[in-house]
Amino acid sequence: MTFFRLVRIILISLRFRLDELVLSSIKHPVAVFMLRIVRFGRPPRTDRGVRLRLALESLGPIFVKFGQVLSTRRDLIPLDIAEELAKLQDRVPPFPSDQAAECVRVALGQSPNELFRQFDKDPVASASIAQVHFAVLHDGREVAVKVLRPGMLRIIEKDLTLMRVLAGLVQKMAPDSRRLKPREVVAEFDKYLHDELDLVREASNCSQLRRNFGPETGRQNLLTVPEVIWEYTTTTVFTMERMRGIPVSQIGRLREAGVDIKDLARTGVEIFFTQVFSDGFFHADMHPGNIYVSDAPETLGRYIALDFGIVGSLSEHDKNYLAQNFLAFFHRDYRRVAQLHIESGWVPSNTREEELEGAVRAVCEPYFDRPLSQISLGQVLLRLFQTSRRFNVEIQPQLVLLQKTLLNVEGMGRELDPDLDLWKTAKPYLENWMRERVGYKGFKQRLDQEAGQWSQMLPQIPRLVYSNLSRPDSLPGLQVEIQRLRKAQEQNNRLVSALVAVLAVAIGVAIWAIAGK
């Protein structure tokens, strides 16, 4: 079966002229000769990105997913290919309702008719990994039930095996393989796919994001996240509160509902920066299909998040690095941007600071001649990543995911409000965030975080001090050892002196003998 799958991949690659795409990236004379042969009589009629997208769509949902992941790695692939791959959509027909019902029965131990007061057989949405059915619990709560496609693990393992083989070939043939890292990209995709196959992981992401925007945080008016129904959730079935709203891309319907579009655009940016810098945990798949807006009178204009299979996490180091980079960029302090790259350890320590500063200036300075509404922070970050490649920087995966999400947020915000000034929205937030980190509030917060650990350590301090003070005095032993070393050194010195004396006498005798002759 694997052999026939490989044959089909080769035939589709030839059909969409991917042979030409591969050979054109290899500068070896043999590759150039082969390229002339394959181009003879049939030059490509469409762009390379379009051909690659169509080939992946023909190969099936797993390859479509791979293209979607690859489109986020704009630090590795050309921009025209990345933008074309970003158009890939999961156009997958739903699997039969009887199969979905059987999956629910196996996962939860009862049939949907027993578990729910009502279970809609026809799915409301279908993708490559799972499909969603609406249902009603016996207590009257409306829910959405996400059911994993049966047999997905077996299908994925087969295609991943082939991808690893192809990645190995590219690694050996492509001159740019060290930077492209095909094996590492496939390994990243492997992890991403297996994470998506575990719906408990997605449910836990949903639960965490809901907690980050709960009433106790004071942010509940920014974003609504569905509640997880844990007793109806397993690795293959994810049941959550049903959400109602208008897709954020349907601007006409939003206006008719009375939503303030400009305020909606600004709120979207605020939600993004809150997730990134306050929580270090962000929804990383914020395309219009996953973002709705409430049209209910009591929550009118509030964002609704869906689909939590892809999330990003940032450490305190990452957050500090990003915030300082953005602020330095806002203030045109290119030397500070260069210093941050070196201090982070992502640039070799022997990198010349002024050389890196010049490269950063060449990236950033042209943007300041444009109207603010035309400046893309996502594109600036992407250009910085691409420039860093010259200095042997290996971009961290979480920052690439962040850059992809920032581009999504920018695109969504500008679609809502073409005059959206992302800088004006982001700069005060980042400056306030930095003040809180270095000021009294930040100090108190860190003190509160460490209080638990210190409360356990403080009672031990008297015992540890007494234990150290009551140890036998090691000073006499050290003095004896020092005296022994000193005697050994004196003996060596006497021996060297004797050898020098003998050598001097020998040289004197030799000189006298030569002079006597």
UniProtKB/TrEMBL annotation:
Pathway: Cofactor biosynthesis; ubiquinone biosynthesis [regulation]. Pfam families: ABC1. Residues 87-340 form the ABC1 atypical kinase-like domain. InterPro entries: ABC1_dom, Kinase-like_dom_sf, UbiB, UbiB_bact, UbiB_kinase. Keywords: ATP-binding, Cell inner membrane, Cell membrane, Kinase, Membrane, Nucleotide-binding, Transferase, Transmembrane, Transmembrane helix, Ubiquinone, Ubiquinone biosynthesis. NCBIfam families: PRK04750.1, UbiB. This is Ubiquinone biosynthesis regulatory protein kinase UbiB.
